[in-house]
Design goal:
With 332 residues, this protein is an alpha/beta fold. It contains twelve helices and 13 strands. The chain folds into three domains: 3-205, TIM Barrel (Alpha-Beta Barrel); 214-282, LysM domain (Membrane-bound Lytic Murein Transglycosylase D, Chain A, Roll), CATH 3.10.350; 284-329, Membrane-bound Lytic Murein Transglycosylase D, Chain A (Roll), CATH 3.10.350. The chain has helices spanning 16-19, 47-56, 72-86, 102-105, 110-126, 137-142, 146-149, 201-205, 238-246, 252-258, 293-300, 307-313; strands spanning 3-7, 25-33, 41-43, 61-66, 95-98, 131-136, 154-158, 172-179, 188-193, 229-231, 272-274, 284-286, 327-329. The strands form three sheets. It has an eight-stranded mixed barrel with strand order 1-2-4-5-6-7-8-9. Strands 10-11 form a two-stranded antiparallel ribbon. Helix 11 crosses helix 12 (307-313).
Length: 332
């Protein structure tokens, strides 16, 4: 299982070439917000140095921002500052929002802190970043809506216990703060990758400073026949399979619905998934401002009572939020 370390100004001296022999990636703190009265956004003093050092050593890098926001406006300010810090850089790993600051966040409700996480992520995603949320087990269970966030972002869980939580879905598990890596003095945070494509999906998606390369072959495979299946290959994602097997990434919701999955559901090489049958592509609907599951079911399916069916066709429940511009598959 791939091993990732994370570092900040608290690891000022690193032999990057030596460390590179023992890790598969590094996530660098790009900045932080102070929790005191000034509540100021600051760059991590060693970010630029660590970025240059690990990139020169051939180590895939990502970034994280330590938040001390207690309002949605502050979360958005942190995102804008984070964008400035990352401008011009290419990151192979996601950019994470670190939520653990007790002084300003401790009294926030679950709904408020989740809304702040989403506000930060929306700004970053609009700027072309592949983003995720970092928190420990307690916060993911009590202070954040894990079920909601896991459907939208990659999650990084911190749990140092000998018997860590196995129920919370995550793509990255930080399992110690006392790891030993040659080339770095003292203990460091280490994480295990639990999503097979985490080291490749960012670059393949054309995010975090990368340009997306066209799939090869450019001509999609023939349309599948009803009842056909597909065996997941290394590097595959739901979108890539939809493009190659169904002819267009826009049909990803059909593929997800056929497998009772969401875009956050992890797939593994060798896994067999169902392909939607041939024939006319499923009808879709683009969510408009003011829409709800009930309203779409009422207008598009003839009855608001079919909203559960509509949600299920998209691998969701009616408790999930929909956004303007989102494309939904309409059941027959």
């Amino acid at each position: 299982m791939a091993q990732i370390l994370d570092v900040s100004k608290y690891q000022p001296t690193i032999n990057y070439t030596e460390a590179a022999k023992h890790i598969e990636g590094a996530i660098l703190r790009c900045g932080y917000t102070g929790w005191g009265d000034a509540n100021e956004c600051c760059p991590d003093e060693c970010f630029e140095q660590h970025y240059v050092g690990f990139k020169a050593a051939g180590v895939p890098v990502g970034a994280y921002y330590y938040s001390a926001a207690d309002t949605i406006a502050k979360a958005r300010e942190e995102a804008e500052f984070c964008k400035q810090l990352l401008a011009g850089k290419q990151l192979e790993l996601p950019v994470y929002y670190d939520l653990e600051e007790p002084h300003r966040m401790g009294a926030l409700s679950r709904a408020q802190l989740t809304a702040q996480a989403e506000a930060w992520a929306e700004v970053m995603e609009a700027a072309g970043y592949f983003v995720g949320i970092y928190a420990n087990t307690s916060w993911f269970r009590t202070k954040l809506d894990h079920a909601r966030l896991v459907k939208k972002y990659t999650l990084w869980l911190a749990d140092y216990r000998a018997q860590p939580d196995t129920q919370l879905q995550r793509d990255l598990h930080q399992y110690t703060s006392a790891g030993q890596v040659p080339g770095i003095a003292g203990g460091v945070d280490l994480s295990r990758v639990e999503r097979p494509d985490l080291l490749t999906v960012v670059k393949a998606s054309g995010l975090n400073g990368w340009t997306k390369q066209p799939d090869k072959p450019s001509v999609p495979d023939p349309q599948p026949q009803p009842g056909r299946t597909y065996t997941v290959q290394p590097g595959d994602s739901w979108y890539r399979i939809a493009a190659r097997q169904l002819g267009s990434e826009s049909r990803v919701q059909e593929l997800l619905a056929a497998n009772g999955a969401t875009v956050a559901t992890v797939i593994h090489p060798g896994q067999i998934i169902r392909l939607p049958g041939e024939g006319a592509a499923a009808r879709t609907y683009t969510v408009q401002p003011g829409d709800s599951w009930w309203r779409i079911a009422e207008q598009q399916l003839g009855s608001g009572s079919r909203m559960q069916e509509l949600a299920a066709a998209n691998g969701r429940t009616t408790a999930d939020t929909i956004h303007p511009g989102q494309v939904l598959v309409l059941p027959e």
